[in-house]
Amino acid sequence: MRALVVVPVLKKTGRQASADITAPTTTRSDESRLEETIGLALAIDLTVVQGLIVPVAQPKPGTLLGTGKIEEIGHLLNEHNAGLVIVDHPLTPVQQRNLEKEWNAKVIDRTGLILEIFGRRASTKEGTLQVELAHLNYQKGRLVRSWTHLERQRGGAGFLGGPGETQIEADRRLLQEKILRLEKELEQVRRTRQLHRAKRKKVPHPIVALVGYTNAGKSTLFNRITGAGVLAEDMLFATLDPTLRRMKLPQGRTVILSDTVGFISDLPTHLVAAFRATLEEVLEADLILHVRDLSDPDNQVQASDVLRILADLGVDEKESADRIIEVWNKIDKLEPEAREALVQKAAASENTAAVSAFTGEGVDKLLGEINTRLSGVMTETTVVLTSDKLQLLPWIYEHTIVDERNDLEDGSVSLDLRLTAAESVELDRRLGNGVKPQPEDW
Predict the structure, then answer these.
(1) Quick one: 418 exposed, middle or buried, by C-beta within 10 A (0-12, 13-18, 19+)?
(2) Cα separation, 199 vs 438, whole angstroms
């Protein structure tokens, strides 16, 4: 479908500007907003014929835009034979309906566009449920009284009864019934995820979650580290459903790496609520890798958007220094001098790693930093396993670092280990109970 992209820029009055004095000084440029919205449209195979930045001095309650600009856009639609207008701004149901009448074309706002993308990308049952719930909550607010003539029946007796259930009331009731059904199904998904997390805690593999602005390169980094085949393309929201993989760090430690949905500015609240079950993986993570696209001029604003969503989810800013590593990605796209300066700056900074997920540059250092952060204070010890305790060997190799092994003549095994305090306590428990550990599935 051929589409026209419109980015309204609302001019702030003096009072509004003074009220925003505490807001971040770094803001997204109008050109960047237009480029991102066009990228969102291209992500669902739309043909964008033209993009417009439209200053709006005084938003109109009925149409948002002024009559002159509406006529101009109408002429452009006819000229390009386009049947869709994407407005990068929230539209009320009335504004959406009036604009569609004026232009004789389909109109969707930013929320509708993101919902459309998520609907295309969802592949698992959970992802489909989450998108459908978000879409129904959005659609519920879009119902306007256009079909009041379709009254089902008259209530009461004789001619005194008022109109019965109207079509819009019936539609709202049906939507609410669907929403309640989906919420119950997603609650079951949430309980299932909690059970999975409980099982993973029995086998205490640390969880490392990847977060970041959409198209920052999370899935490419995920594939680089784990060797997985997750879809990774230069496209906004190329992946939607979360993916978890168990992997070994070069130092021998086993971790679970989680790739999450990409964030975006002005993420619709319907989506945040619907995807809370998925995003809870981030809350449970021992370490969060905040992947940033350093080749994007707006990466600082994008980082602020990601941190704001993390704060909404419950990741406290005070504890972020201990849990978050900033991954400065796509350094291969920078000029040599800029790249070298960035690498040196990252090396001198705490909680920062400069990498190229595409070429692999800096990934080994990142894995080393992950291992260091997860290991905490390591202690060295020597353990001798008698023949009746050799069943503990797989657990020891998976959860500790074995520096040396000696097989003794009496059938016992001597191991020089490095392990954390928590692993030491667990090993003592397993050595002391004499019960053969059961295989545990994370």
Answers:
(1) middle
(2) 13
345 neighbors 309 (Cβ within 8 angstroms) = no
Residue 362 exposure: Cα atoms within 13 Å on the Cβ side: 22
Please state the φ and ψ torsions of residue 62, each to the nearest 5 degrees: -90, -25
Residue 375 is which amino acid?
Answer: S
**3-class DSSP assignment, residue 4:** strand
CA dihedral 272, 175, 114, 103 (to 10 degrees): -140
Torsion of CA 233, 237, 242, 245, to 10 degrees: 20
CB 257 within 8 A of CB 244: yes
- Convert 322-336 to b/e letters by CB count within 10 Å (16 or more is b): ebbbbbbbbbeebee
Taking a C-beta distance cutoff of 8 angstroms, is the pair 29, 298 a contact? yes
CA distance 148 to 220: 51
* Contact yes or no for 103/81 (Cβ under 8 A): no
* Beta carbons of 218 and 263 less than 8 angstroms apart: no
Strand duo 207-212 + 287-293: pairing: parallel
The first and second tokens of residue 5, run together, are 């992209």
Determine the distance from the C-alpha atom of residue 2 to the mean position of all C-alpha atoms in its chain, rounded to a whole number: 28
pLDDT at 296 over 70: yes
User: What are the DSSP E strand ranges found in 111-201?
Assistant: none
Residue at token pair 């009041």: 148
**Distance from C-alpha of 277 to C-alpha of 311, rounded to nearest angstrom:** 16
The answer for residues whose C-beta is within 8 angstroms of residue 438's C-beta and 6 or more apart is: none
Amino acid 243 reads T
What is the band of 204 on the pLDDT scale with cuts at 50, 70, 90?
A: low
Q: Is the pLDDT of residue 137 over 60?
A: yes
pLDDT tens readout for residues 323-350: 889 999 999 999 999 999 999 999 988 8
Distance CA 256, CA 226 (A): 10
Q: How many CB atoms lie within 10 A of CB 93?
A: 13
**CB proximity list for 368: less than 8 A, separation 6 or greater:** 250, 251
CA 175 to CA 256: how far, in whole Å?
38
Whether this prediction's pTM lies above 0.85 is answered by: no
C-alpha span between 351 and 303 (Å, rounded): 15
